[in-house]
Specification:
Number of helices: 10
Number of strands: 7
Shape: flat
Strand content: 5-15%
Order of helices and strands: HHHHHHEEEHHEEEHHE
Largest sheet: 3 strands, antiparallel
Strand order of the largest sheet: 3-4-6
Length: 332
């Protein structure tokens, strides 16, 4: 009976049978696999702002006071959103509180705070309550930064002068004001209007600023900060031919009917929710309505006239590098 080889003998025999090409193949695959895992770990960390002091400027890069209403020590919202947060919710998920401290909120609504307290105290699912507490006030009460990858949707600037209020609301990851998105961000707060005079003024400020833009540039959908805010303008796409011409107030000028419809939705929502407060209806607003009706009339015209000629177009948007492509016909 042959003696069974030891594990050392078996290992040595197996190593002799291994093709060197297989070794390199397996080693290469392992390196790629490990590298991918390291990138998944390291890259997100690189996207979070550094915690150290910028030696060149002597300033903490996590502090970006780009709002007229925030103390200089308030951190950018990315820091708040990526922090552990406390206290955690008593539910099984133990979700952190990620609202900035009150002095670091761009706008505070007493009616909203009462609603949040009332809702969360009665919700059985405490993790869901924490999500509501973090998310519902996000537009009004978060911290903004104009740096890429650290933007949060927020009220960026406002002037609550009751005779001519203005409110500039940035959208998404770009610190510019989209008519449609800014309007939709405010819709969830409509039920609070009867209970908060400051919030009503903020709404009128948003309507007033949008009316100014629509009256002047009804085909444009996104705008730069108003001069009154002293906020910096954002760079915009170049090499685009637009008619009618745009000016420095515009960030983007892509014709969208829903942008104008959102302004009307916001205006009606304010009127209905504020028990018929029509103080937002001024010459500025009426000029915007006239501009909207003119645009709808222009865009309702057919491409071809009755005699077969092409009707003049009231609006055009064309990247100057674009070109027509001849379709390929199947001749088989």
């Amino acid at each position: 009976m042959d003696e069974k080889p030891s594990w050392r003998q078996s290992l040595a025999s197996s190593l002799k049978r291994i093709d060197k090409r297989d070794v390199f193949t397996y080693a290469g695959a392992a390196i790629v696999y490990i590298g991918a895992i390291l990138m998944m770990i390291i890259l997100p960390l690189k996207l979070i702002p550094d915690q150290g002091i910028n030696s060149a400027t002597g300033q903490d890069p996590n502090v970006a006071n780009n709002n007229n209403y925030l103390p200089s020590y308030c951190p950018i919202y990315t820091v708040t959103a990526n922090s552990a947060g406390s206290p955690v919710s008593p539910g099984p998920l133990r979700l952190p509180l990620q609202r900035p401290p009150q002095e670091c909120r761009t706008f505070t609504s007493s009616a909203m705070e009462k609603l949040i307290s009332n809702m969360t105290s009665r919700m059985v699912d405490k993790d869901l309550a924490r999500l509501f507490e973090n998310a519902y006030p996000n537009t009004l009460g978060t911290i903004m930064s104009i740096r890429k990858l650290t933007i949060d949707t927020t009220v960026s600037w406002y002037d609550l002068d009751n005779s001519n209020p203005l409110a500039y609301v940035i959208t998404g990851d770009i610190p510019a004001h989209w008519l449609r998105d800014a309007s939709h961000q405010f819709v969830p707060y409509l039920p609070l209007l009867p209970y908060d005079a400051s919030l009503r003024t903020l709404f009128r400020g948003l309507i007033n600023l949008q009316a100014r833009h629509i009256a002047d540039k009804p085909y444009c959908n996104a705008f730069q900060p108003p001069p009154e805010s002293s906020l910096p303008s954002q760079s915009r796409a170049a090499n685009i031919r637009i008619s009618p011409d745009i000016d420095s107030t515009v960030y983007q000028c892509k014709w969208e009917i829903d942008s104008l419809a959102s302004f009307l939705r916001l205006s009606w929502g304010y009127y209905e929710s504020s028990n018929g407060d029509s103080s937002f209806i001024n010459d500025n607003w009426l000029n915007a309505i006239q501009a909207i009706m003119s645009v709808l009339d222009d865009q309702s015209r057919p491409t071809l006239a009755n005699d077969g000629s092409i009707n003049p177009q009231a609006y055009s948007y064309q990247p100057t590098g674009s070109r027509a492509v001849t379709p390929v016909h199947n001749t088989s």
